[in-house]
Amino acid sequence: MCAAKRKPSDDPLAVPAAVIGRLSLYLRELSHFVRAGNLTTNSDELSTRLGLSAAQVRKDLAYFGQFGRPGIGYRCEELIGAIRSILGTDRRWPVLLAGVGNLGRALLGYRGFVPQGFEIVAAVDVISEKVGTEVEGVRVEHLDGLAEIVRREGIAVAILAVPAGSAQAVADRLVAAGVRGIVNFAPVTLSLPEETSLLGVDLAIQLEQVAFSVANRQLPR
Amino acid sequence: MCAAKRKPSDDPLAVPAAVIGRLSLYLRELSHFVRAGNLTTNSDELSTRLGLSAAQVRKDLAYFGQFGRPGIGYRCEELIGAIRSILGTDRRWPVLLAGVGNLGRALLGYRGFVPQGFEIVAAVDVISEKVGTEVEGVRVEHLDGLAEIVRREGIAVAILAVPAGSAQAVADRLVAAGVRGIVNFAPVTLSLPEETSLLGVDLAIQLEQVAFSVANRQLPR
DNA sequence: TAGATTGTTAATCGATTAACAATC
DNA sequence: TAGATTGTTAATCGATTAACAATC
Q1: Among all residues of chain B, which has the CA nearest to that of A213?
Q2: Do A87 and B211 touch (CB under 8 A)?
Q3: Is the pTM of this model over 0.85?
Q4: Where are the alpha helices (H) located in B98-141, listed in sequence order?
Q5: CA to C1' distance (Å), from B113 to D17
Q6: Can you tell me the distance from the alpha carbon of A142 to that of A53, in angstroms, rounded to the nearest whole number?
Q7: pLDDT digits (tens, 9 = 90+) for B35-65
């Protein structure tokens, strides 16, 4: 009746989340290399730049195929294409923004999304003064129109930038409207169906992590 | 002549970075519990809420001491105080913002920092039209005044929200001015002295991670 | 007391690293 | 060819989990 829940470890094809995180970093470095005019790179250069081991870079990439040539290394453009294809960013992702506050507005104006394949094509809010306005070329619509917007724009991924108090309710509505992945900037833990991808970005927590590290860093001896 | 570099594993007191990350999540949940009127909680409740195991919660906390009572659990307020003390956020951290663009402005207006002990008390930029203005009650000063600002305000931690192209140069100046930890929002890998704490938050990468997860999620069978 | 839940140890699991044959 | 660097296997390391005596 109820299918057994598969843990990640049940799936022999499962790739550790940390590997996917590093894939994004490799992609970013490779773009810099290309901009610097480099045609090829290798696991040593890539790993040194990122503070990893060369073996780790090779192993990470090996989860997905053979992208390098012994004795030569990796062709930057080729590897960029491969990683984009793995991440799924070789195509364009229309993104919905929920919550046009301070942070939401900043995200609407952020230039870094489009080159990576993401474009915020719609924004929703509940404040009537905001609804109907246009911010950074994107029309702000009412939250109530969510399902129609998601269908109209073919949206799979949303950014949640609403106040903490309404984050869970809005997240539920996003899921109900068909959104399949959410980047959540509200400082709350969301409960969502397992099949919804969720990544939390808590700005205060980022500062906390650095503060701990500063406070506990041993001084060089 | 050159002191041997200590790897984290050399230090028997070293706590895994992942543990510190979860500490922030425990703190956030505990605040919610308190707001909901709960006096005590336990490793089961905390872990379920966060999708972890109860053993992990207990083990994480055990790195730092004994905060619970067998048969009872943890007193929320008490544990909050303990975690704040561990993270170093039981005191106020004055924060410097470098880069008053779209994102910088949003961060200046973000209400979530102060309750966690962080206050942006100064902002710097290089654009002369911005210098001298006041944003969200914070005066924007010129980057050239960095060292004096850091000294004057007693700043240890900075947020870097400048364009990618100038991030490394500005980061170098932050370090030279005495900043000891940086949260970097520019989509570049920074090279900084080992003793500087660094955390990168790349907004496009957050979306990439969710996109991968959405694209590769197995549909429920 | 009986029930609940901790802190901690030992066992398991998974991820990273080292090493090297294959090969450009 | 000699040198460089990959992909991959086996060894190591570290983190998570399970289990349970201690104890509120």
Answers
A1: B197
A2: yes
A3: yes
A4: 102-108
A5: 35
A6: 49
A7: 999 999 999 999 999 999 999 999 999 999 9
